[in-house]
Specification:
3 domains; 335 residues; Helix Hairpins; mainly alpha; elongated; DnaJ_domain; transmembrane; membrane; 71% helix
């Protein structure tokens, strides 16, 4: 419904755009060059001199009669408008284009409207503000995800009990269990203090990786843009080192090289691979998955395990029956 109204408004407005609509954004029915008594070849200095000469003769302060003063004010406004248009290179270019192509109503109207209504803001300021806003959103989102993970671990009995044991071993709960101190505190304050200790232990001891990892300054767009040349240089240096060590000198792969090849074969990003636990990465290294033949065997075995697991899964069976009965591209509202 909204698009229909917009279409009707556009159809009503567009036919009304003609040469007079465009000229109203400039000097009206007058020619800006004729108002200042100059030619189109005039320079900026010529335009300035012409405006001073013509304006000095028709300035409203030179007239005492009310009607003459009113006419002089209208004339002076026209002169000032012509001067503002012709002294600005881009504005003058749009005006000259309109004089040379008077039949292009819509293009001339758009150029005139854009020049008149769009604010003259430095693009660098716009980019800086945009990048700052994105960085602020990244900072807020990173800490929100991290706090969400800490809240989950602190409320899960398995991790909560483990954090309590660590806190007791390190004597962090000594102050919380001090009976003299507890007498001066309410049950809510005691509970809040214990929660803070558990949260602190989880933050320090828990190795949270991936999306929910503790944010750093390197996650911000501003820092990433500043560090991009450095990171690019580091990557090129590493790649040249790879070519020299592996291709030219024919050296054996180091542990870092093996992890890199395994990660590439699994089509995982650095963050995804780092999110894996140490035991899983060590298992991949023991299986020598950086070798193509070993990786193919491992992948076939894993795909077979997934197939068997899905075949015995009731949820996956229901999903397959749904696809068989309804197809992948259908949608119903009867459930």
């Amino acid at each position: 419904m909204t698009w229909g109204w917009l279409l009707l408004i556009m159809l009503a407005v567009l036919p009304s755009i003609d040469a007079s609509s465009v000229e109203n954004y400039y000097c009206g029915d007058d020619n800006c060059y004729d108002l200042l008594q100059i030619t189109r070849e005039a320079t900026k200095a010529d335009i300035k001199r012409a405006f001073r000469a013509v304006a000095s003769k028709t300035h409203p302060d030179k007239f005492q009669d009310p009607s003459e003063k009113r006419n002089a004010e209208i004339r002076f406004k026209k002169l000032a408008t012509a001067y503002d248009i012709l002294r600005d290179d881009e504005f003058r270019q749009d005006y000259d284009y309109m004089l040379d192509h008077p039949d292009e109503f819509y293009m001339n109207f758009y150029r005139a409207w854009r020049r008149r209504n769009y604010p003259n803001v430095d693009v660098r300021i716009v980019l800086a503000v945009t990048i700052s806003l994105i960085s602020g959103v990244q900072y807020y989102n990173g800490w929100s995800k991290f706090n969400e993970a800490i809240k989950f671990f602190s409320s899960t009995p398995k991790y909560r009990n483990h954090a309590l044991e660590i806190a007791k071993q390190e004597g962090l709960l000594g102050a919380a269990n001090d009976k003299k101190k507890q007498r001066r505190m309410t049950k809510q304050q005691i509970k809040e203090e214990e929660e803070q200790i558990i949260r602190k232990v989880i933050e320090d001891k828990m190795d949270i990786r991936g999306v929910y990892a503790k944010p750093t300054i390197y996650d911000l767009l501003w820092v990433q843009m500043v560090m991009l040349p450095i990171w690019t240089f580091q990557y090129l240096a590493w790649y040249c080192s790879w070519i020299y060590r592996i291709w030219i000198l024919k050296r054996d792969y180091e542990k870092e090289d093996k992890n890199y090849l395994i990660r590439k074969k699994m089509c995982m990003s650095q963050g995804q691979y780092d999110a894996l636990d140490d035991e899983t990465r060590e298992k991949y290294l023991k299986l020598e998955l950086w070798k193509q033949e070993n990786f193919q065997v491992w992948k076939a075995e894993r795909d077979e395990e997934i197939r068997i697991k899905q075949a015995s899964s009731g949820r996956f069976k229901s999903y397959r029956r749904y696809l068989k009965n309804n197809g992948p591209g259908r949608m119903y509202f009867d459930d």
